[in-house]
């Protein structure tokens, strides 16, 4: 009951309308309309080509940073590539100098390039130079495998006890991860009541720190180098340049979520199909941080519940990035636990020594006043200072004490 009350106050007080969401963030969603128009986005031989086209468009438009949240762990379906390779090898062994053989070799090369979606996507990622990919980490179960060499370009020193240890991981295919600007995790972990209130800024895996995708994107969008990101203890925080992001002892940040405006989500989501088809003007992505991810229930149970309502992981990424860049982080100060217990003690002293001396009516008014003072204080600290000091235990002690004393007085 106490936790439920504290969490309800937390959710209400940390949902904000000001400041506004970071305006340079643009979200492109793989929605139902995109799946209907470009069905191979979900899976299939043409998916890599579609992502490559999107990256080319965004890069040409001058997007500052691009982050892809879909998994690219599985290689593209073969699509006859093996047969084309055999044809290449056969033509090479034949060493036929005739024009016909040369033309046939050229056609095989073109066909190979056309159907090798991984190579096509890798080329687009490499040309853009600002594309970040996502690894999937599990916090329980699975067998751990060594971190790929390319992923070490994005890691932090071993965070030891200040980060949760992941047990297994799935990384982007080597051809893609090796040319990406960086690879980070985008792990969504809900609280016991099913709501998402915190995101891990760093995980521990293979004896190194794995930064969140939001951290890598924030760093790149601020034109900072990898050496300007660090995880620190005492106090627990992740530093990105001049930004100090308070975390708990496990490396989790509590972002403040932006409230929806006029029935619209805080970060409007553009349809993947609309962008690729050119219906959305390319210049609208100039100098933007573009986040691409699934926004269709047809792709699985992706939605999570937050104080801002149900949202997809790519939207969580947008809120997290905005919170990082604007410092919209809730922290539990070191003195919060002591203050919470101090409030309980003061409430019990009031109930034991003061309340019995008052009439039921006066005692009720005073108790209600103190209860409101506690509630307003907790709300104000969360809303305006970003400090989470649980006041529910003290408020419940005050309420229960008044009920007991008033009952005894009535006997």
Q: In a few lines, what is going on in this structure?
A:
This protein has 411 residues and is an alpha/beta fold.
Radius of gyration: 27 Å
The first-to-last residue Cα distance is: 28 Å
Oligomer type:
single chain
Based on CA inertia axes, which overall geometry fits? Answer: elongated
Assign the structural class, choosing from mainly alpha, mainly beta, alpha/beta, alpha+beta, or little secondary structure. alpha/beta
Report the sheet-strand fraction. Answer: 15-25%
Q: What is the tally of helical segments? A: 13
Q: Could you describe the largest sheet, including whether it forms a barrel?
A: 7 strands, mixed
The strand count comes to: 18
Question: Low-confidence parts lasting 5 or more residues at pLDDT below 50?
Answer: 108-113
Helix content estimate: 40-55%
* Arithmetic mean of pLDDT: 87
Overview of the structural elements:
Helices cover 42% and strands 17% of the residues. β11 (237-240) and β12 form a beta hairpin. The model is unreliable at 108-113 (pLDDT under 50). The strands form five sheets. Strands 1, 2, 3, 5, 6, 14 and 15 form a seven-stranded mixed beta sheet that branches. A three-stranded mixed beta sheet has the order 4-8-9. A three-stranded antiparallel beta sheet has the order 7-13-18. The protein is elongated. It has 411 residues and is α/β, with parallel strands linked by helices. The chain has helices at 2-14, 32-37, 47-61, 81-94, 99-115, 117-128, 174-177, 213-221, 272-276, 313-326, 336-354, 360-385, 392-410; strands spanning 25-30, 65-68, 131-138, 164-165, 168-170, 182-185, 199-200, 202-205, 208-211, 229-232, 237-240, 243-246, 252-255, 269-271, 289-294, 304-306, 309-311, 329-330. The chain has 13 helices and 18 strands.
């Amino acid at each position: 009951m106490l936790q439920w009350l504290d969490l309800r106050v937390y959710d209400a007080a940390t949902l904000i309308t000001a400041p506004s969401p970071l305006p340079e963030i643009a979200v492109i969603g793989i929605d139902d309309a995109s799946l209907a128009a470009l069905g191979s986005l979900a899976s299939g031989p043409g998916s890599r080509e579609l992502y490559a086209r999107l990256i080319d468009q965004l890069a040409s438009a001058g997007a500052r940073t691009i982050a892809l949240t879909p998994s690219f762990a599985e290689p593209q379906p073969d699509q006859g590539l093996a047969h084309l390779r055999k044809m290449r090898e056969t033509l090479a062994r034949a060493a036929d100098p005739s024009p016909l053989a040369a033309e046939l070799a050229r056609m095989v090369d073109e066909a190979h390039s056309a159907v090798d979606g991984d190579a096509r996507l890798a080329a687009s990622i490499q040309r853009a130079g600002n594309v970040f990919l996502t690894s999937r980490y599990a916090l329980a179960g699975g067998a751990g495998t060594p971190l790929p060499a390319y992923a070490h370009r994005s890691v932090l020193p071993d965070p030891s006890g200040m980060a949760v240890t992941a047990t297994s991981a799935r990384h982007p295919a080597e051809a893609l991860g090796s040319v990406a600007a960086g690879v980070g995790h985008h792990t969504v972990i809900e609280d016991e009541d099913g709501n998402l209130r915190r995101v891990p800024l760093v995980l521990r895996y293979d004896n190194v720190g794995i930064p969140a995708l939001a951290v890598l994107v924030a760093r790149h969008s601020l034109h900072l180098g990898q050496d300007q990101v660090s995880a620190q203890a005492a106090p627990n925080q992740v530093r990105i340049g001049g930004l100090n992001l308070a975390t708990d002892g496990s490396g989790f940040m509590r972002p403040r979520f932006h409230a929806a405006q006029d029935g619209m989500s805080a970060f409007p989501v553009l349809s993947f199909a609309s962008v690729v088809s050119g219906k959305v003007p390319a210049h609208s992505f100039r100098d933007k941080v573009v986040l691409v991810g699934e926004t269709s229930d047809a792709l699985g149970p992706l939605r999570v519940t937050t104080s801002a309502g149900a949202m997809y992981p790519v939207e969580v990424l947008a809120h997290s990035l905005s919170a990082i860049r604007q410092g919209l982080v809730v922290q539990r100060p070191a003195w919060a636990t002591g203050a919470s217990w101090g409030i309980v003690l003061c409430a019990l002293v009031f109930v034991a020594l003061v309340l019995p001396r008052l009439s039921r009516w006066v005692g009720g008014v005073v108790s209600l006043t103190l209860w409101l003072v506690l509630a307003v204080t907790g709300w104000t600290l969360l809303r305006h200072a970003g400090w989470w000091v649980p006041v529910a235990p003290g408020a419940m002690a005050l309420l229960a004490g008044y009920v007991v004393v008033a009952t005894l007085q009535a006997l």
